[in-house]
Write a structure and sequence with these properties.
Layout: E1 3-9, E2 12-20, E3 23-28, E4 34-35, E5 45-46, E6 49-57, E7 71-73, E8 78-81, E9 92-94, E10 101-103, E11 113-117, E12 133-136, E13 148-150, H1 152-158, E14 167-170
Parallel strand pairs: 1-14, 4-5, 6-7, 12-13
Antiparallel strand pairs: 1-2, 2-3, 6-11, 6-14, 8-9, 8-10, 11-12
Amino acid sequence: MKTILVRPVAGNRSRAIVQVGPLPLPAALGRSGRTSRKREGDGATPIAAMPLLHGFLRGDRLCAPASGLSLRRIRPSMLWCDAPSHPSYNRLVRAPFRPSHEEMQRADELYDICLVLDWNVTSRRRHCGSAIFFHLARPGYEPTAGCIAVSRRDMLRILPHLRRGTTVRVL
């Protein structure tokens, strides 16, 4: 799979259709909808073409699914820095870590499968958004903090077709 399209749903800025080949899948977007001017904490999903880099998996909750994408098992010490002034901004860090961060091993299931999109990762700019992931959706496809989220069932269906460099294009 080379490109996955993410099209907004008319009348609901935090919902989308993820098009994987001929397969349309419901998805959640950021609580603020989409933006071409992504800023840290704005709750918006960037309008951009973002290659998949790698992923994370809660190996204590599910067996490693088939995928051409590298999936790393999440450990309790794994955090993601979202502090724009820190040198590790938008990077995986290890606990203990005092600056602002997200826990990768969440109590809910959102990051049981969590794919890292290349938004502000390989070419980083302070305050331009961090932790933009393709992960599992909450029940009812509640809005995300800026990520793209699909159901566990749908993620497991598409994972075998994903590779490093598969582009997720938010329209």
